[in-house]
Amino acid sequence: MLEINNTLIIQIINFLVLLFLLNIILYKPIRKILGQRQEEMSASEGTIADLTDRSSRLNEELEQNTTAARKDGFKEKEDSKNEGHHEEAKMVQNAVDSVGEKITKAREDTDRDMAGLRQSLEKEVSLFSQELAEKVLGRSI
Prior knowledge:
The chain has one helix at residues 6-137. By secondary structure, the chain is mostly helical. The protein has a domain at 59-141. The longest helix has 132 residues, at 6-137. The mean pLDDT is 91.
């Protein structure tokens, strides 16, 4: 059976001293380390949440900037295209005007040359007809 005597009291005191020493040497440092670890984990989770939010905001901002840049680029492209069409129309009109002037000048030159040639041919025709008549008739006219 179980007897209550001095050894039992010594065992209880021994247990309490051991419990006190283990608490000081082992349990408190472990609890302290676990507490620090929990604080670090909470801080890390907060940092992760902040960085995730910041990353999301930056991604949205990047998409908005990209969309705006595309719109600006497309507008600039269209403006350049329209400007090119206007320049092309001006160049074509200038070419048409220049060709028209050259054609008009060439026609005038041709008409002058034709008039000069007609006059010279009319003079020569009268000479040729006179020579032909002299040869046919056999006498001078």
